[in-house]
Specification:
There is one protein chain. The chain is mainly alpha-helical. It has a domain of about 80 residues: Four Helix Bundle (Hemerythrin (Met), subunit A) (Up-down Bundle), CATH 1.20.120. Helix content is about 85%, strand content about 0%. It contains four helices and no strands. The two termini are about 40 Å apart.
């Protein structure tokens, strides 16, 4: 009896995990599609510009993400530091990563100038901020919905 119950629990857990994984992938794909549509519309990308832009943009974002991970790791390590020399080395590393991020952004803008018109470049800076704000608002709305679903406490 215990074995059957254990098998049922394992199967249900696996099915739920697979469903949640599928939902996560589906949501990520939906966000990616929304992002592509958002930037394509805001910048007025042509069929010729679209693949070039996204190849450069995705490569830039991947490299930027790697730098962000290094920065977070450096900051996380800092929680265990006890010596000034360790903090000094971490500050030096953070400054170096900031410089790398600036250089990466500068290189990206040089490359993207070959694909976008000056007007589109200008619109790109604004669209990045708008898209970031759009994502923040979506997250806030999700949080508000989740907070409203809390069960009422009885007195």
């Amino acid at each position: 009896m215990k074995k059957i119950f254990l098998i049922i629990v394992i199967c249900c857990t696996s099915a739920l995990a697979a469903q949640n994984s599928g939902n996560t992938q589906q949501k990520e794909q939906q966000l990616e599609t929304e992002k592509i549509n958002f930037f394509t519309q805001k910048l007025g990308l042509t069929l010729e510009q679209n693949p070039k832009f996204w190849a450069l943009y995705n490569d830039f974002k991947k490299k930027e993400s790697e730098l962000r991970k290094k920065e977070m790791l450096t900051r996380k390590k800092g929680a265990a530091f006890t010596q000034d020399a360790e903090y000094a080395a971490a500050v030096k590393e953070l400054c170096s990563l900031e410089k790398e991020r600036f250089e990466l952004k500068t290189e990206f803008h040089k490359e993207i100038e070959k694909v976008l018109s000056p007007k589109q470049m200008f619109l790109f800076f604004d669209a990045e901020k708008q898209y970031k704000n759009l994502l923040i608002n979506k997250i806030k709305n999700i949080d508000n919905k989740n907070n409203n679903k809390k069960p009422m406490q009885r007195k």
